[in-house]
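Hypothesis: this fold can be encoded by more than one sequence.
Test: take the C-alpha cells below, design a sequence, compare later.
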C-alpha cells in the first residue's frame, strides 16, 4: 500500500493541474445536482423490531388514508389574569383566529377548541390544531407568517397565544456560526503549528472542498435515501474535522521529508507513502466503525453512519491526491521561513532537535507509574455518571424558553397536565372477538384504571369496526422515568388486560416510540462497544504486529469514551454547567447519541494511536530500543497530533452552538472525547504503559507473526524503492537520546 500511495503522491504532484481540475469538476457537478435535488426529509422514520412500530404499521393497514403525512401546528390560547377562554370576548377572538387559520392555501383543516373538547377543565387554556397538506419542509415562510399573523388577532384581545407542532420545525440545514468557529480555531492552530500562511491555509482549503463535496452529495441522495437534516450537519462536522487533520499530517510529513533534503516531488511521494498510509488506515477505521452502526438495526442510524463514512472517505481521497497536487503549485511556500532559503534537493539534512514532544515523553518515561495512575483514576472518576445514563428523545421541553414552541409546551402542561404533551396511543385488534366494541371498551376501561393514567379518550373504529385507536394520557411528562415505567407496566400486564376479550392491544405514539428506541439503543450499546473494541484489537494487531499494544489501545479507547459519556450525563442530564452551553432544560440523553458517539470516537482514537505509534514503531524497527523509540516517536508526531486534536476540538465545539439537541450533544461529547483521548490517553497513558512494558510492548508470538498479513504502515517501501529520490536518509539513530538522559 505504501508503494502505491508513494506513486500516487508523485503522480498527483507531477500532474497537479489535471488533479485540481478533476476535483473542481467533481465539486461543481455534484453541487449543481445536489442543489437541484429535493433535499433531505425529516418525516416519519421506520424503526423495525419494536412494538410501537408494529402498532403504527397496523394503524396504517386498518385505517388506510387516515394517517396524516402533512405538518401540524398547535395554537395555544391562555386567558389573562386567571380568566377563562370561554368568556364571550375571548371566545369570539379565538373563533375569529380559527377562521383565519383555515384560510391558508396549504391548510387541510383546523379544529375548533370549543367543539372538539380542547378546553382545559379550569377554562384557562384552549388549543386549536392546524393540519397542512404538505410536510414541514414544504411550508414557506409566508405559511408560517400567516400562522403568527392569525394568532396576533387573539393577542390583540389580551390572550396569550403560543404555537407549537411540527409545522414550526424549519430545516435550517448546516452552515453558519458552527463551521466558522471550527475553521477559525483550525486556522489559528495551523498557523502556530506551521508558521506559514500557505501551510496553514492549504488544509483549510482542501478540507472545505472535501466537506462541500460531501454536503452536496448528501443533498443529492437525501430524498431517494430518506436522509435527515441531522445527517447533513454530522457529515459536514466529520468531513471538515478529519479533512483538516488528514491534510495536516500529509503536509507535516512533506515538510519533514524536505528537511531531510529530498526534492519536492520525492517529498510529496514519500509523504503520501508514509503519512498517507496512516491516513488510509485511520480513515478506514472511522469508516468501518460508522458503517458498523448498521448492525444496531435502526435505519436512521444506519443512514447517518453511512453518510458520515462517505464524508470521511472523501476526506481521505482529498488528502492523498488534492493535497500533493496543491503542494506542486507552491512546493516551498509551505516550508518554515528559515527553511525556504536554499531549499533544494542536494542540501544536507538538518539534524533533528529536541522539542516539547520529546521533553514530554522523557518526563513520562521518568514517572510512568504516577502518570498512569493519575490518568486512569481521572478518567474513571469522569466515567462514574454513566451508571445513571437515561436515554430518551427530548422534545419541545428541551428548547429555550425564548421560543414559542417551548412556551406552548409549558402552557399545555399547566392547563391539561404534564402528560398531555405525550399521550400513549393504544391500538386494539378485536378482529377475533365476538363483540369487538365490547372488547375495546373493556380494554380501554382496564387501561384507564392503571396507576399513572389520568384519562382515556373515546375509541375511534375503522370501517370494518374490528380495530380501534384511543389515547391514554399519563400523569407524568413524556421524558419522565415514571412514564417509561408506566409503559412497561401496561405491556407487562397485557395478559390480564386482554383476558376474556379475545382481542389484543399494542401501545404506540411518540412517547412510546421514544421509549422503545431508547431501550433498543441501550441494549445494543454494549455489544456494539465490544464489537468496535474487538475490531480495534485486530486492526492494530495487523498494523503494529504486537499483542499488548492493541490491548492497551482498546482499553484506552473504552476509558476515554466512557469518560466523555460521563461528561455528557453531567451536563445534559444532571445539569452541571448546562447554562454555560445554552442548555435550557436538562433531561434524558438523546437515544441515538451515545452509540453514534462510540462509532466516531473509536475512529478518532485509532487515528491518534496510529499517527503516534507508527512513528514509535518506525524508530523501534530501525534499531532504537523501546524507550528511545518512544522519545523519537513523540518528537516527530506529538506536536502534529496535538494540533490535530485541538482542531478537532474546535470544530466539534462549534456545533455546541446549534439549536438541535442531537447536534449539540454530539458536538460536546465528541469535543470532550477528543480532548480526553488525545491528551490523557494517547499523550500520557500510552507512553507510560510503553515505558513499563519496554521491549515486551512489541512482543508477538512466532506462529501469529506468520499468520498475520504484513502492512507497511511505517512507509519503508517508498524509502527502499524510490527511484533516485534525491537527498540523503539520515541515520535512524542520529538523534536517539542517550540512555542516561531518558
Amino acid at each position: 500500500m505504501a508503494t502505491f500511495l508513494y506513486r500516487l503522491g508523485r503522480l498527483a504532484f507531477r500532474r497537479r493541474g489535471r488533479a485540481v481540475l478533476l476535483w473542481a469538476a467533481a465539486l461543481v457537478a455534484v453541487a449543481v445536482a445536489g442543489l437541484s435535488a429535493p433535499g433531505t426529509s425529516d418525516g416519519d422514520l421506520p424503526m423495525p423490531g419494536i412494538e410501537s412500530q408494529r402498532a403504527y404499521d397496523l394503524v396504517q393497514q386498518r385505517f388506510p388514508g387516515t394517517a396524516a403525512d402533512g405538518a401540524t401546528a398547535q395554537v395555544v390560547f391562555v386567558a389573562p389574569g386567571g380568566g377563562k377562554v370561554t368568556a364571550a370576548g375571548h371566545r369570539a377572538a379565538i373563533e375569529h383566529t380559527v377562521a383565519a387559520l383555515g384560510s391558508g392555501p396549504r391548510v387541510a383543516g383546523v379544529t375548533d377548541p370549543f367543539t372538539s373538547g380542547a378546553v382545559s377543565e379550569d377554562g384557562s387554556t384552549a388549543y386549536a390544531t392546524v393540519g397542512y397538506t404538505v410536510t414541514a419542509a414544504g411550508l414557506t415562510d409566508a405559511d408560517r407568517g400567516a400562522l403568527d399573523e392569525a394568532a396576533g388577532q387573539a393577542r390583540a384581545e389580551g390572550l396569550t397565544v403560543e404555537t407549537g407542532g411540527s409545522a414550526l420545525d424549519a430545516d435550517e440545514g448546516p452552515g453558519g456560526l458552527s463551521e466558522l468557529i471550527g475553521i477559525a480555531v483550525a486556522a489559528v492552530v495551523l498557523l502556530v503549528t506551521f508558521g506559514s500562511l500557505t501551510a496553514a491555509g492549504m488544509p483549510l482549503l482542501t478540507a472545505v472542498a472535501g466537506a462541500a463535496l460531501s454536503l452536496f452529495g448528501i443533498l443529492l441522495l437525501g430524498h431517494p435515501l430518506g436522509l435527515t437534516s441531522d445527517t447533513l450537519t454530522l457529515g459536514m462536522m466529520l468531513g471538515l474535522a478529519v479533512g483538516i487533520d488528514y491534510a495536516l499530517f500529509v503536509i507535516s510529513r512533506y515538510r519533514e521529508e524536505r528537511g531531510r533534503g529530498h526534492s519536492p516531488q520525492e517529498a510529496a511521494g514519500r509523504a503520501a507513502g508514509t503519512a498517507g498510509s496512516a491516513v488510509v488506515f485511520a480513515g478506514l477505521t472511522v469508516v468501518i466503525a460508522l458503517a458498523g452502526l448498521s448492525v444496531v438495526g435502526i435505519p436512521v442510524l444506519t443512514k447517518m453512519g453511512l453518510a458520515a463514512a462517505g464524508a470521511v472517505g472523501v476526506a481521505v481521497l482529498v488528502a492523498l491526491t488534492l493535497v500533493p497536487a496543491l503542494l506542486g503549485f507552491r512546493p516551498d511556500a509551505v516550508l518554515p521561513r528559515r527553511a525556504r532559503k536554499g531549499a533544494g534537493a542536494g542540501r544536507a539534512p538538518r539534524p533533528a532537535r529536541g522539542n516539547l514532544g520529546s521533553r514530554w515523553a522523557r518526563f513520562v518515561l521518568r514517572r510512568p507509574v504516577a502518570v498512569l495512575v493519575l490518568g486512569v483514576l481521572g478518567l474513571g472518576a469522569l466515567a462514574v455518571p454513566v451508571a445513571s445514563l437515561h436515554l430518551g428523545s427530548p422534545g419541545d421541553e428541551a428548547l429555550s424558553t425564548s421560543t414559542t414552541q417551548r412556551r406552548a409546551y409549558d402552557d399545555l402542561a399547566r392547563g391539561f397536565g404534564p402528560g398531555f404533551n405525550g399521550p400513549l396511543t393504544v391500538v386494539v385488534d378485536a378482529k377475533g372477538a365476538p363483540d369487538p366494541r365490547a372488547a375495546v371498551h373493556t380494554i380501554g376501561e382496564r387501561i384507564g384504571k392503571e396507576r399513572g393514567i389520568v384519562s382515556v379518550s373515546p375509541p375511534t373504529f375503522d370501517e370494518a369496526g374490528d380495530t380501534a385507536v384511543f389515547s391514554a394520557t399519563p400523569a407524568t411528562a413524556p421524558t419522565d422515568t415514571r412514564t417509561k415505567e408506566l409503559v412497561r407496566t401496561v405491556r407487562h400486564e397485557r395478559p390480564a388486560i386482554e383476558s376474556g376479550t379475545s382481542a389484543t392491544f399494542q401501545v404506540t405514539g411518540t412517547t412510546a416510540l421514544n421509549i422503545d428506541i431508547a431501550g433498543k439503543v441501550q441494549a445494543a450499546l454494549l455489544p456494539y462497544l465490544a464489537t468496535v473494541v474487538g475490531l480495534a484489537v485486530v486492526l492494530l494487531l495487523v498494523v503494529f504486529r504486537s499483542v499488548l499494544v492493541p490491548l492497551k489501545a482498546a482499553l484506552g479507547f473504552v476509558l476515554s469514551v466512557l469518560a466523555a459519556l460521563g461528561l455528557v450525563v453531567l451536563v445534559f442530564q444532571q445539569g452541571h454547567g448546562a447554562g454555560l452551553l445554552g442548555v435550557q432544560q436538562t433531561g434524558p440523553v438523546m437515544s441515538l447519541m451515545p452509540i453514534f458517539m462510540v462509532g466516531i470516537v473509536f475512529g478518532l482514537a485509532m487515528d491518534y494511536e496510529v499517527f503516534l505509534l507508527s512513528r514509535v514503531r518506525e524508530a523501534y524497527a530501525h534499531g532504537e530500543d523501546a524507550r528511545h523509540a518512544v522519545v523519537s516517536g513523540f518528537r516527530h508526531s506529538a506536536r502534529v497530533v496535538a494540533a490535530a486534536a485541538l482542531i478537532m476540538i474546535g470544530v466539534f465545539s462549534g456545533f455546541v452552538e446549534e439549536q438541535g439537541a442531537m447536534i449539540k450533544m454530539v458536538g460536546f461529547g465528541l469535543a470532550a472525547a477528543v480532548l480526553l483521548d488525545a491528551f490523557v490517553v494517547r499523550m500520557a497513558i500510552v507512553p507510560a504503559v510503553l515505558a513499563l512494558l519496554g521491549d515486551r510492548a512489541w512482543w508477538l508470538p512466532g506462529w501469529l507473526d506468520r499468520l498475520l498479513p504484513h502492512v507497511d504502515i511505517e512507509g519503508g517501501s517508498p524509502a527502499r524503492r524510490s527511484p533516485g529520490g534525491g537527498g540523503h536518509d539520515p541515520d535512524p539513530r542520529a538523534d536517539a537520546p542517550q540512555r542516561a538522559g531518558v
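The longest strand covers residues 125-132. The domain at 72-168 is CATH 3.30.70 (Alpha-Beta Plaits).
Hypothesis status: open.
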